[in-house]
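name: query_chain
kind: protein
chains: 1
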Amino acid sequence: MQWIFWLIAIILSLGAGYLVYRADKRRAIPHPWITSLLRSLVVFFTLLLILVPTIIISKNAVEQPIVLFLQDNSYSISGALGKDSATYRKNAEGLLQRLSGKYKVVTWAFGSRVQNDSLFEYHQPATDISAVLARAQEFFGMQNLGAVILATDGRYNQGANPLYQQLSAHSALYTVALGDSAMQQDMRITRAYANKVVTVNSSFEVRADIVAERCMGYNNSVSISEGGATLSSVPMSVNSDKNDRGISFTIKATSAGLHHYIIKVPEASGEKNTVNNRKDIFVEVVDEKKNILIASGAPHPDVNAIKEALSGVESYKVTVCNTENFPASLGGYDVIILHGLPSLRADIAPRVLAAKKPVWLIVGAQPAGAQGANSLSAITHATMSPAQVHNVSAAYRSSFNAFTLPATIQSVTDKMPPLSVGVGNIQAGPGGNILFAQSTPGDAALPLWLLQQGTIPSAILFGEGLWRWRLYEFKNFNDHNVIDECIRQTVSFLAANSNEKPFSVTMPKYVWSDQEAVSMNAYLLNSNNEQVNAPDVQVTISDTTGRKQNFSFERSGSAYSLNIGVWASGTYTYAASTTYNDKHLSATGSFVVERMPLELMETGADYAMLYSLARKYNGGFVPASGIASLYDSIIRNDRVKPLIVTTTETVPLVDRKFYFFLILLIAVAEWLLRKYWLAQ
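structure:
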C-alpha cells in the first residue's frame, strides 16, 4: 500500500512546483524552472515524513554453502588408521583446502563431546555419532549447510543408533570409513543382567550376553565368582566366525548384604583385546520383603504400569486393590500408592492418615481429584486447587537430588507425551524435591512429580498417563528403563524410612568408570524413624593393597552426601561410622572402579552402517583412501549451491538527521536564488 502514498506525495509536490513556476514566471525570475524544482523537492520530502514515515529497503546477499567436516577423534581411530594415519591426515587436509576455495568449510572433532580444535589427535574416550549429527542440525539449521562429511569407523558406544535418528537436515551426508571392515578376533561380554535387590535364601538369575568374532573352535567355560571363589560355570563352544549367545547362571542368595559378582570369559588363543572379557555386577540381598499396596479408585492402565515396573524388584511384594476390597488395616504395608484416591465415593483418608505410612499420591484427572488429594495434606504437605482437565508436558529438573536416575533421563523426557492433569494452582510444602515440573507456559514453576521428605515421606504425581510414558519410551528407545527407574526409585525413596537399620550408606551404583566421580550417601534415623544429620559421619576407603583414605561426609538436607572424585581402577571397600545417642553405628560395603576403554569394547569399522547412513541422506560413501574423491562428488551435487538471501530493513526517516538537513538545504537554496534574482 505504500505506493499509494508515494503517488500522492509526487502529485502534490508536482502541483506545488507548478504553482511556484507560474508565480515566478509572472515575476520575471530568470530561471523559474529551478525554483519550481526546488520547491517540488521540499514539498515531496516533507510529505514523505507525513505519509511514508518509514521506508522498506530490500537487500540481496549471496550465502555460500557450508561444508561441515566431522572427524571422529576417539581412541579407536588411532588403531584403525595405524601406519596410514599421516597419509589420511594429509589427504583430509588437502580435501578441506580444495573445498575452502569454493565453499565455507567448518571442521569439528567429536567423540564423547564436540571440539573445534585438536582435529586429528584421537584422544577422546567414547564415540557419540548421533549427538554430533543432532548438534550440526541445531547449529546450522537456519544456514545454507550444503554437505556434511562424517569421517569415522562407525562404531558408537554412546547415544542412539544414528541410522534410527530422525534428522530434518536437507544437506547431503558423505561418510568416510576409517579402518578395516574385517572382524577382529574377539570374545566379549556385551552386557550383564541381574536384579539389583533379592531376598535372602532365594535363587536369582544372572545373565550375560556374549559375542564371539573369528573365534571358531573356541571351547571353554564362562564363570561367575564372588570373592575369588567360583560359584558356577557354563560351557561355551563357538562353531562359526560370528557367534552371539546368552549365558545364564542361577545363584543362591545365602546371606544378607551387598554381594559383588564377577563374570569372566577366558580369552581365545591369539586374542589381543581382553579388556571386554569381564563384567562386574552388584546385588543387594535383604532379609525381608517390603509390602507395597497399590489402590485405585477405578481400573486404570497406570496401575498396571506401576505394577510391571515394580515386578522386577524381588524385595517388593506388591498388592493391588480397589475401593471395594481396600484393606481395613494398613499396618502391614510399608508404602501405599493411591491412584485417584481418596474420592467422593471412597473416603479412605482417615485410615491412611491413621496408618502413618509413606504415601505416593497420583492425582486422578477428575474434578474431585484435587479435593481428595487435599484431604491427605497432613502427610503430603501440599494443597492444590481443582481445574479443568488439561494436558501438561513434563520438564526434567536437573537440580533434583533425592536419588540418581539414568543419564538419558533428559533425552527420554523430551520424547514423552503430556499427562492429563486436573489441578490448577499447587502449594507445595518447604523442602519439596521436584523431579518433573510442568512445562506449560506460565506454569513452569509448578511441580508435576514431587517428593517430600519429612516425618512421613510422600510423593505426588499431579496427573495420570504413566502407561503412555512407558509405551513412548519403548517406541523411541526400545526399553522402559528410565520410566521404570523413576517409578522404582520413588517407591524406594518412600520405603527407605521403613528400614530397621538406624545407619546405612548407599551408592547410586557400585560399578564405576575411571572417568567419573564416585559418590555415596549416608542416612541416620532417630527413634521415631526420622532422618537426622546432627553427628559427624566419617568413612574410610581401602584398596586391595591395604592403603586407606579417610573422608568426612557433608550434610545434605536431612541426610549426608560425599563426592570422593575420580579413582583409579580397582576394587575398594568402605567402612563408615558415627556416634549417635552414645551408640556407635557403622556400615560397610564395597565398590569397583573399572578401566572402561569403551573404544576397545568393539573393534573394526562398520562399513554397512556408514553406507546406509550416506544413502539415507543422499550422500556418498568412500573408504579412507578415497577421501580426495569427495571433492568431485560435492562439486557435482546440485544441492550444494549458493543461496540468494533477501533481507528487508525498515528505515524510519525521522531517525535520519541527514534527511532534515537535506530539506533545509534545498529550502535555503531556493530562498537564496529567489533573493538574488529579485534583487537584480
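note: The chain has a mean pLDDT of 86.
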